[in-house]
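Appendix B, example 12.
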Amino acid sequence: MLFPYRVIIVGAGLGGLALAHGLRGQGVDVAVYERDAHPDARPQGYRIQLDEPGLTGLRRCLPAPLFRLCLATAGAPPARVSVRNRRLEVLADRAAGGGSPETAGGSGAAGGSGGPGGAAGPYAFNRPTLRQIMLSGLTGHVHYGARLVDYRHEADGRVTARFADGRSATGDLLVGADGVHSAVRRLLLPGARVEDAGLRLVYGRIPLDARSRAGLPDWVFESIFTVITGGPGHPHLGVGPVELGARPEHAGLAQRPPAALSPVGDYLACMVGAPADHPAMPAFEELRELTPAALRDLALRVLGEDWHEDVHRLLARWDTHSLFPLRISTATPVPAWESGPVTLIGDAIHAMSPVLAMGANTAVRDAGELTRALGGAGDAPDPAGPLVAAVRAYEGRMREYAFAIVADSRRTGQRRVGQRERPRPLPR
């Protein structure tokens, strides 16, 4: 059924944009408010992995032509995840998404081999391309430079969001899709905690072409993701190939209507991680101020000399200008709260370590679950009204699946890459 309400979404990341598409497909009046001044205001990362249930959420939300364009521009590396030690001896190697989520960098969700145009996945997406595709279908619905400062409940049951620049927006439902530092979460659930997992990453990419690919070791292309670990409390390296099925700029122009997608070549996503208390690792505030060249020097210093020569050959090809730092965060479980016309999706409620590659998967799943719940609003009578009943149903499902994945990610991160056992609160 059509959902005859207006929905305000705070945050134009993948989860928020997927939700906007899903609701618009049901005739909902949607507006997305993003605090960044423009889509490219800050680094958004490079490779993300989607398999089930993320692909189901994406399919449920996006119009069919945009979903096909997403898959066409994705890569489908071998659906395996590998963990190796610093001498490149295999510690674990299994099908991506199969079985218990024991492997750093894996999926933890049911999946199988797939390819562009197929269904099951997993797929390696270039995150900026995926976001551009989603934005291309939301022209006029995304508003930038809008930093949420508060919201208020109106007498008629609606919600008004107020932004720092004086703008405001009123809707029947307000959805916080605004990430780890969610302003909506702080207002809705002031006791909910997101903690510093005690890991720092220097993240970048290695460009691939026929010549450079020929000079790289075969093992980097044999899995969708490979973690090379020095053991708990020691540095680690993560590598994931992104070899796109179609050039985005060409595939976008073939779309009807055309989608203007930025050119991008194949690459290896490559990150060096270390515990925050590593002797060579500065405080995160200092890390953020380092130049790309200084980040490269720091990563090499943190990693040290006693790693397989293949690792050093890989890092010699790092694109220095692509480097930026990340702090890994993890949420604590949140007890059930009283549902109402404000809710949360993605990292705004269940931030997690990336070791299971489930952060984006779960955010897009949230978008699909909330779309489905709202699409059925009114199917059963409820004293709170159809909207609140739908939100309550979504929140109950989301807490059950999402916080189980957060816990799995935490355990795997502690075992494989030294994620802190007793995380500390993030600074506000």
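The chain has one domain: 6-140+192-425. Residues 6-140+192-425 form a domain with the FAD/NAD(P)-binding domain fold (CATH 3.50.50.60).
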